[in-house]
Write a structure and sequence with these properties.
This protein is of the alpha/beta class. Helix content is 35%, strand content 22%. Strand 1, helix 1 and strand 2 form a beta-alpha-beta unit. It comes from Sphingomonas limnosediminicola.
Length: 547
């Protein structure tokens, strides 16, 4: 069964962990999905409620209330004691909690959107006590609040097969309340899960420098959820995706999920700037973010890690890198647990040579999957990446017409300076101006970011060159960086200040640089380079590219 989220994060209940593990091994159909910790904001009489599990299957829908530890009922009050000896007292029985949560879910969320599809479908609630025998011995009490048909005890939780039998029993019970029993189709299951999921999992964005992380949250796409399912099901996996498909975002989520399962995690990349940016996000203590150059020293100090997460893997695909990471991972590449994220367009834009033998070696060991949807770049930016570089940057998430790409010509240092300043004034002046922290100016390898930052500051725009310090928090300034150094990072507004006329160089740099822009791009180039780009841009000129 598909579990959302695919791994438990900060779950303190051993009972819920046990049920989570059972559900992973149970399936009534390929579309079956269980939602863990579903928040129910609109409850019948509570300000807030939470369902431990909502199981959406071909056979029907079950809300599960899970109670671990010791259970007692004294003078009408229920007592629940955990493994630490802490006792929580409630007036409601577990069944009453489950029923009120289910009927709120049904009335406030399911029926308004799916009443027709749910007609005749068995739906209800059940309670799971994984750690105790039957509450009342047979014959001692009928226990109307907890009928055996919808209550599971330790005997039902010996393994996933016995737990499946319990789910069948509970669904049969709720089916007996229907006249014309129907099943749920895979498409309806998907629609219901999609409607309910935003209530329980929100993922902090990686680009917290663009917006304050505490104010802004980013959700996984359907494709990213599917990839996370595949990742959680495989010890060794290769995830391929072009620039903008969210590889770093998914890699960071993998690191968090692995850490939540109690594993030590090495999250490695080659770029010191990307590593510094990742460290500025609050990963669990058992996640180590490091560059390749740091790995050997760290491994000598603390020993190998349980899980390896490699970001921008195409930059670490050589014999020396492979051997260094082999030693840092328990079990090595062949038997260890690893997630490798790489760009299939490395031939277009090679930052570091890819050893094809090493690449084939990894491909022979890991399950393969792809990220195809571009979640970072606006449609016009995605089109520009494809047109100018010939690389596949995925399908844009939004409308193809969204965003803006502008090509400007500058044949002298003075013209280049004028074009940069004009671009910044357009973005940072007037009503509705963007924030300075939304902007990056990218320069070629021969240029000095420090000098360009000084030039910009001299024109009245606060600016600073890219440093690890600049990536450690929100900086109210325009950032200036070399194209290569900004790999793996992003900004809503990107100004590329200068490309030479070499066709191969244009393709490589265009891919690396243009893909850094979320929404709007200004590309300033000498006439020769601009003409080469204009020829390539002919196919998209009618879609909003200005030359």
């Amino acid at each position: 069964m598909r579990l959302l989220p695919p791994e438990l994060i900060n779950c303190k209940s051993d009972a819920e962990r046990k049920v989570f593990g059972f559900l992973k091994q149970i399936s009534f159909s390929s579309a079956d999905t269980a939602l863990h910790s579903l928040n129910i904001g609109r409850h019948e009489y509570k300000r807030w409620s939470e369902a431990d599990f909502v199981v959406v299957t071909r056979r029907g829908i079950l809300l599960l209330e899970v109670k671990g530890g010791r259970v007692a009922c004294k003078n009408g009050y229920w007592e629940f004691t955990n493994r630490f000896g802490e006792t929580n007292t409630k007036q409601e029985s577990p069944a009453a909690q489950a029923s009120s949560a289910f009927f709120s879910l049904e009335k406030k969320y399911l029926n308004p959107s799916f009443a027709r599809e749910l007609g005749g479908v068995p739906m209800g609630f059940a309670v799971v006590f994984p750690d105790i025998p039957r509450l009342i011995s047979p014959g001692a009490s009928p226990l109307p609040e907890h009928p055996d048909q919808i209550t599971a005890y330790d005997v039902d939780c010996r393994g996933h097969n016995t737990f499946r039998d319990f789910l069948e029993r509970a669904l049969d019970h709720w089916a007996s309340t229907k006249k014309n029993v129907r099943e749920l189709s895979p498409s309806v299951i998907t629609k219901i899960v999609t409607a309910l999921r935003p209530n329980f999992e929100r993922v902090p964005p990686l680009n917290s420098q663009l917006r304050h992380a505490e104010r802004d949250f980013c959700q996984f796409t359907e494709e990213q959820y599917e990839r996370m399912d595949e990742i959680s099901d495989n010890d060794r996996i290769i995830v391929a995706g072009g620039a903008g498909t969210g590889k770093t975002f998914v890699a960071a989520a993998c690191a968090r999920y692995e850490a939540s399962a109690g594993r030590s995690v090495l999250f490695v990349t080659r770029s010191p700037f990307l590593a510094s940016f990742l460290r500025s996000h609050d990963f669990p203590e058992n996640v180590t973010v490091a560059t390749l150059d740091d790995v050997a020293k760290l491994e000598a100090q603390r020993g190998p890690w349980d899980t390896l997460v490699v970001d921008e893997g195409q930059d670490l695909c050589d014999v020396n890198s492979i051997e260094t990471l082999e030693n840092a991972l328990k079990g090595g590449w062949q038997k260890g647990r690893w997630r490798w994220f790489g760009d299939p367009n490395h031939q277009v834009s090679p930052s570091h040579p890819v050893d094809e033998d090493c690449h084939e070696y990894l491909l022979s060991l890991g399950f393969r999957c792809k990220l195809k949807q571009n979640v970072r770049n606006a449609g016009q930016v995605v089109q520009a990446i494809s047109t100018f570089s010939g690389a596949d940057a995925g399908h844009p998430r939004g409308e193809p017409s969204m965003g803006r790409v502008v090509i400007e010509r500058a044949d002298s240092p003075q013209e280049l300076e004028t074009a940069i300043v004009r671009t910044l004034r357009g973005w940072l002046s007037g009503e509705g101006a963007a924030a300075r922290s939304d902007v990056v100016v990218l320069v070629d390898e021969q240029s000095s970011p420090e000098e360009v930052a000084q030039l910009i500051a001299g024109k009245g725009f606060r600016a600073e060159p890219l440093t690890e310090r600049a990536l450690a928090g929100d900086r109210d300034c325009v950032l200036v960086a070399r194209i290569e150094d900004f790999k793996g990072l992003e900004r809503p507004l990107v100004c590329i200040a200068g490309l030479d006329g070499n066709a191969a160089s244009i393709s490589s740099r265009a891919y690396k640089a243009i893909s850094r822009a979320n929404h709007e791009l200004v590309l300033i180039a000498p006439t020769q380079a601009a003409e080469a780009l204009a020829e390539k841009a002919a196919a998209i000129a009618a879609r909003g590219v200005v030359t």
